[in-house]
Amino acid sequence: MYTGSCLCGEVAVEIKGAISSIIHCHCSLCRKNSGTAFATNGFVNTDEFSVTKRASKLS
């Protein structure tokens, strides 16, 4: 299991499965979103991902 949160700690998440296909993406959308030359992305099954704290902050 993996757990994480945003930098301020308001939102927390939990992943109960494996993270697959970890990639570095250099497309313009990922560069803009991360503010760097690339973004690192990992993919998980949606049924193994949950927001455990303050999901209302995401809308």
From TrEMBL:
Q: What organism is the protein native to?
A: Pseudoalteromonas espejiana
Pfam families documented for this protein: GFA
Pinpoint the CENP-V/GFA domain residues: 2-59
Q: What is the protein's name according to its record?
A: CENP-V/GFA domain-containing protein
Q: What family is this protein classified in?
A: Belongs to the Gfa family.
Query: What keywords were assigned to this record?
Result: Lyase, Metal-binding, Zinc
Q: Which SUPFAM superfamilies match?
A: Mss4-like
* GO MF annotations, alphabetized: carbon-sulfur lyase activity; metal ion binding
The record's section on InterPro entries has: CENP-V/GFA (IPR006913), Mss4-like_sf (IPR011057)
